[in-house]
Amino acid sequence: MPTIEYEASVGVGDGSGNLLVHGSYDAVKRVQAIILENERLRRMQAFNGLTPAEVERLALLVEEMGEAAQVIGKVLRHGFESYHPEDAERTPNRKLLEKELGDVNAAVNLMTRSSDLDAGSIFHACADKSKRVEQYLHHN
Ligand SMILES: [Mg+2]
After folding, report:
1. Which of 10, 115, 120, 124 is at a distance of 20 to 30 A from 130, taking alpha carbons?
2. Does 102 score more than 90 pLDDT?
3. Phi, psi (5° rounding) for residue 32?
């Protein structure tokens, strides 16, 4: 049974950008396979450095924020107490907005529990905004 020689030396050579690999045919093929696998893995990495779990949590957040924005549009067009004419339960827009804002909060909580975001920073930003916005409101 033939043995396979896997020992190879790898170098950058004369600076021309070429990678030099010395060894048996099998060793060179093995180095090539490693390089191609590394290239394949590098192409699979997200350009933004996000993990699939972080992307999923951000997708949930933006989805829920979109749903909240949609209900805000309904409130602005038809009022808090209005409801969809085909809604047999006559759920007012106010309740729909409360539900969607709760969904947004749940997405934020998921991100803070996963250490994507810092809950303390969000709390302080909320407190600061609450103070600053007062002076710019047209109605009290
Ligand atoms: Mg929702």
Report:
1. 115
2. yes
3. -60, -40
- Pairwise CA distance, residues 74 & 28, whole Å: 65
Task: Please report, for residues 5, 20, 60, 67, 123, the alpha-carbon distance to residue 53 in angstroms, rounded to integers and kept in the order given.
Answer: 41, 39, 11, 21, 24
Cα(63) to ligand 1 centroid in Å equals 7
Find tokens 């951000």 and name the residue: 58
93 CA to centre of ligand 1 in angstroms:
13
For residue 4, pLDDT beyond 80: no
pTM here is 0.71
How many whole angstroms from 112 Cα to the centroid of ligand 1? Answer: 18
CA distance 10 to 26: 14
Rounded to a whole number of angstroms, the distance between the first and last alpha carbons of the chain is: 89
Task: Give the span between the Cα atoms of 101 and 137, in whole angstroms.
Answer: 22
Residue 52, exposed/middle/buried by CB under 10 A (0-12, 13-18, 19+)? exposed
Residues with CB under 5 A from ligand 1 (ion): 64, 67, 100, 103
